[in-house]
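Subject: Re: docking follow-up (pyridoxal-5'-phosphate)

Dear J.,

Thanks for your patience while I sorted out the input files. As discussed at Tuesday's group meeting, I've set up the holo structure prediction with pyridoxal-5'-phosphate included as the bound ligand rather than trying to dock it afterwards. The sequence and the ligand SMILES I used are pasted below, so you can double-check that they match what you have on your end before we go further.
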Amino acid sequence: MTSRPAALGGAPAFPDGLPFARPAAPPLDAVARRVEPSWSKGTLTNGPLVRELEERAAEHLGVSRVVAVSSCTAGLMLSLRALIGGGAVLLPSFTFSASAHAVVWNGAVPLFVECDRRSLQVDVTDAGRRANAGDVSAVMATHVFGAPCDAEAMEALGRRLGVPVLFDAAHGFGARRGQRRVGGLGDVEVFSMSPTKVLVAGEGGLVATDNDALADQIVLGRDYGNPGDYNTQFAGLNARLSELHAATALESFAQLEESMASRLATVERYHAGLAAIPGIEPQVVDHGDVSTYKDFTVRVVADTFGADRDTVMAALRADGIDTRAYFFPPVHRQDAYTSVPAELPVTDLAASEVVSLPVFPMDADRVNRVVEALGAIQRHAGELSGARVA
Ligand SMILES: *Cc1c(COP(=O)(O)O)cnc(C)c1O
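The structure tokens for the complex came back this morning:
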């Protein structure tokens, strides 16, 4: 290949553009057929389709209870409310903001911990070290981009501290930690069904647990704390899931295996092609684990690649390729968290290196063109960096 990056005057790899993501929305007519019985009965929310979704998800995940809620954020807020009464919650900064927001909405303090630079997952050893800094009431971690974190180490840390273990499993429906399904790890796991996730309801979340008392608290909490007689037991939320969203989720669930398989095929093609490009390091997933690859994130190691992440993203954009820098900025660098002290050099470095590539079901040709564009950018990295400085 002798082609030049579009940023240096070459022909763009994707003249019509390549989008970053395309929601895996199920067919509308199938959703309409599924919601019809609830609709004609006048049951628009929290009805039989929500019950069916909860039962199917619990069976699939192998947990005793799944409670459907209006979002993963609400599910995390209600789970923490049921499990802690303030204190500090250990969690990584390399996650989506909602993980930390759920802590703050409960009047608790986020105690940010490092991530591992290669897996981008919570660094549990670092979490253990920082556990001495405060009155820890829970430990929490994210299955980053749908790849399971080191759940056994998190569970061991929770046992050592005598506190509950929560997982933000927003990306993880369909993932496996060895033989264990994501959904049954720790005390509770919360999934998202918002448009960019692999299981899609439009909006929605699923709380999975084997703890019946906890599940009962979520059931109450999603309905204002109202047990049915309007004598509310605590200040709950309206976090119910509508029947239309449940119908969408059930149709999406029917496509889950197929959409996971096609994402995996895309990722395998990426892996094969990117291995030849110096300084591109894909997120490392533990051997034997299954990731949903909600995102396919690589690190641009500037010294080896010859240019930094921002230069690479700009050059890919010139080639018509839409990317994101997930998760940048890390939570502790966001304006909402400036008052929370955190010294996280590994997280800062990793977050400055990440770029997520398009990963919706793409044919081999499109994956190859992304790889070739990235290869051309690397071969001209010096010129591109110079152009940016000038
Ligand atoms: C998407 C996401 C959330 C938020 O999910 P919602 O359903 O939109 O509330 C939380 N955590 C992570 C890691 C996410 O990616």
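A couple of observations from a first look. The radius of gyration is 22 Å. The pocket of pyridoxal-5'-phosphate is lined by residues 71-73, 95-96, 98-99, 142, 168, 170-171, 192, 194, 205 (CB under 6 Å).

Let me know if you'd like me to rerun anything.

Best regards,
T.
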